[in-house]
Amino acid sequence: MVAGAQQVRRAREAAGLRTHCAAKSTLPQLLQAMIQQALAGSGSLGHHLRLVMNTRISDSAAIQRRASLNWEFYQELFGRVLKPLARPKDHAESFHAGLRLLALDGSHFSLRNSAAVMAMTRPRPGNQRASAGAFMKWSTAVLLELGTHAPLSVACSTLGMERMEMEIDIARRTLPTLATLGPSLLLADRLYGCASFMLEVMEQGQGHAHCLMRVRDNLRAQQLEVLHDGSALMRVRSDTKARAKAASCEMVVRELRAEVRRTGGKAQTLRLWTTLLDARKHPAEELLKLYAQRWEQELFFRELKRHTGATSMLQADSEQTAQGAFAALVLAASEVAQRRVEAATEADLPVLRLSIAKMGQMLGQLTSMLQSAGDVLTPAQRAAMSHKWLQVMVREAVIPPRRARSCQHGLRRPHSPWPVIRKRVFIDPEVLLTLLPATSP
């Protein structure tokens, strides 16, 4: 009995090794299975790889194959796959004065408490009570094209770090892509709004990239000139680059200040820096309204975690496997973005009027059908089925215009002091955006 069990075990190991070795020549199928798993949000990698390859392969062999792909491979793949999708004639919301609108932000994913994660020496982030968090956090950054939600460049935490990397340091690794995108305008929040980061954007963009970033109120700047539209030219200095004896540690930016107030709400002051110095070509009021599109970056991460990846916890047992899982999410998001742009173009609708959740779900179904059919369908039949399925996706994925965040809040059966709502009323309060003119010193 023992010898028989050993033979069975050896046979299974040999079968797994053979399928693993056979899978070495099927890298496109492995990547397709990773994307399909990300779109489905369930099922093992081996399950999806068996569907794609129409062959037998164990789950462990599929995981070993994915583990052999390092982050350098994914970076090279991203450089070939992640491309801008917006066109000036068809997607005017993705451009401003000929500049492609981009956004940069970071987010954290949770890692499961596996043996490899528990053995990490890096301290866990604390919660609000100053105690260790339940899960180890893993940081990422994404450079995004606004209007289409197409990822253009990504970065993640480096393996083996003793301390958690700063989000801004991870985001810096996405900046070399700016040189390949042509004229662009990068929008970012206060974390990135500083002279050192803006200087790096200008350097990496090779003169084609510009910035529009919110900055903190305590950053110092020297006023040079007050412009006719209420903005002002300021000279700012990067102390970090000055200490490093960099070639350029100063730059001239244009500062805009505005007050945002909702009807019946408190006023909030915005302070923005931009490298667009021409006030006649880029009026201050247009730039202030343009900055509101930065919130699309927050929507993208929600889509990436909930609709594409099903959860904010990666299907990974270590940092290395987390890189593969995150890469699959990015590839899936890029695939869905491409299909959504195609569907929106055919239906003559704005791209964001198509549900990313339904698009991802139906795209996964189409991929499963085509892979299961194999050689039964001819290339012409596959193209016809894909086109027909695209029409179905357009019909099913259209969503009504988004309600404002100011929609009335309440419960039908409240268990709290919230008001009872028997009939929901849509209230659209006026948002007052007032430019605060700069004054001469």
Automatic annotation (TrEMBL):
GO terms for biological process: DNA transposition. NCBIfam families: transpos_IS4_1. PANTHER family: TRANSPOSASE INSL FOR INSERTION SEQUENCE ELEMENT IS186A-RELATED. Belongs to the transposase 11 family. One of its GO terms (molecular function) is DNA binding. Residues 100-312 form the Transposase IS4-like domain. The keyword Cytoplasm does not apply. Transmembrane segments: none annotated. Keywords: DNA recombination, DNA-binding, Transposition. This is Transposase IS4-like domain-containing protein. The keyword tRNA-binding does not apply.
